[in-house]
Amino acid sequence: MDDKTDSDEQRLRTELRERYIRLMSKLSERQVVLDLHEKTTVDGKFAGINSSGSHLAVDMLRTPIGIVDHAVIRCNDAILLTTNMDDLVDSDKRKN
């Protein structure tokens, strides 16, 4: 690869990482639903994600057998994470 290609790739990687970090910070304290393997669905309040992106922290996790005050979930166990972000989209539009 030439220097221009390397710098373009680095710029794109930086932009993607920044978007990822912004998304994770906007998820903080939001109610989320996690679809897990074995057709299990749990929900709780998103607390954070570790730096490698391999584990999610969720507070007040509601599971089929009860509520866990603070839980760590391996991302490999999650198929899908959903949340309502309509209010974020609306607030971003108001800023512009």
UniProtKB/TrEMBL annotation:
Show the GO cellular component annotation of the record.
Answer: SMN-Sm protein complex
Official protein name in the record: Gem-associated protein 7
Task: State one Pfam family annotation.
Answer: Gemin7
Q: Give the originating organism.
A: Syphacia muris
Q: Gene3D superfamilies, per this entry?
A: 2.30.30.100
Superkingdom of origin: Eukaryota
GO annotation, biological process: spliceosomal snRNP assembly
Q: Which InterPro entries match?
A: SMN_gemin7
